[in-house]
Amino acid sequence: MTTQTQSTTQPSYSIPPTTRLGHVALTVANLDQQINFYQTVLGMQLHWREGKSAGLGAGDADLLRLTEVPGARREPRRTGLYHFALLYPNRRELARAIARLFSLRYPNYPTDHLISETTYLDDPEGQNIELYIRTLDRGIAEVINGQFVFRRFDGKPATGRDPLDLESLFGELSPDDQLDQPLPQGTKLGHVHLYTANLNDEMHFYHDVLGFPMGPVNVSFRMGEVGLSEDQPHVIAFNTWQGEGARPPSPNSQGIRYFTIELPEQAELGRVLDRVRHNGIPTEETQEGSLVRDPASIGVVLTTSKAG
Fold it and tell me: What pLDDT score was predicted for residue 4?
């Protein structure tokens, strides 16, 4: 028996697997400090800056947008963003990124999740960030009897929270590799992990309404997720670790403003928006696209990859 919950209705629409996450937008208290961190520590390029806002990434579309609200604070035990995750194009680039953190003596926590190799760190304002690659060829993760179970294809034991084999990872680098390279092209916003108020409500929104394939829900661990395909799991994850029924933060507090979901074409965006409106969810038109709010009041901008 598993602890996966079932959504209230079987969706008649499946979001295309070519859908992707675009960028995440944060409210920050000190824009200069945050820009310096993302450039110096993660190697992001500053794409633009206008007044109190800026966009950063790997030289193409923005991966991160920052807006300064002086005096903004992070409110505890509220819904919002647990972390956003940068998906690196290959293992060598992840090795370079983690080696860079070590060379800067920047605190981070390399972890082997079996289905991904990753590290976690916080920016200067306490926003958690994950850097990772998917390693789905090594094993699978399941929810069985209320517990996450990790099975390696080679038969070796795995907990999903093992220390990352840094010797193996750094073996991807040569002695003359430069660690201060810009964030590599091809780096993507791989997933967002959200603090929410109710797992079933969140699953209904992302699965039943938006059409994301349902991933595992572990009730005892108080976490669920949706993906896009077998090779793109864990695209939007959510948990109730801030408390069942947690309230949204106050306007202009530190944290997430919104994140974007980019549909591959206008017709698919129209289908999703029709479902949103059919479910009585308000939409607001913005420069980035159509802003909706999930059940935890987290902003989600629906747009197309051609919107720029």
Answer: 39
For the purposes of burial, counting CB atoms within 10 Å of the CB of 33, is it exposed (0-12), middle (13-18) or buried (19 or more)? middle
Tokens of 21: 């996450």
Residues 6+ apart with CB under 8 A from 64: 23, 24, 25, 26, 38, 44, 55, 56, 57, 84
Instruction: Kindly list the domain boundaries of the chain, sorted by start residue.
Output: 20-307
Q: In degrees to the nearest 10, what's the CA dihedral of 16, 22, 25, 31?
A: 170
| CATH architecture of the domain with range 20-307 | Roll (3.10)
Closest CA to 114 of 169, 60, 161: 161
Amino acid at 191: H
Strand order in the sheet with 284-285: 45-50, 53-57, 62-68, 20-28, 255-263, 299-304, 290-293, 284-285
| Cβ–Cβ under 8 Å, residues 290 and 210 | no
**Token pair of 104 as six digits:** 């800067």
Q: Which residues contact 206 (CB under 8 A, 6 or more apart)?
A: 212, 226, 236, 238, 294
84 DSSP β-pair partners: 129, 192
Q: Where are the alpha helices (DSSP H) in 146-262?
A: 166-170, 199-203
pTM for the structure as a whole: 0.94
CA atoms of 93 and 109, how far apart (whole Å): 17
Distance CA 29, CA 15 (A): 35
pLDDT at residue 145 in the model: 85
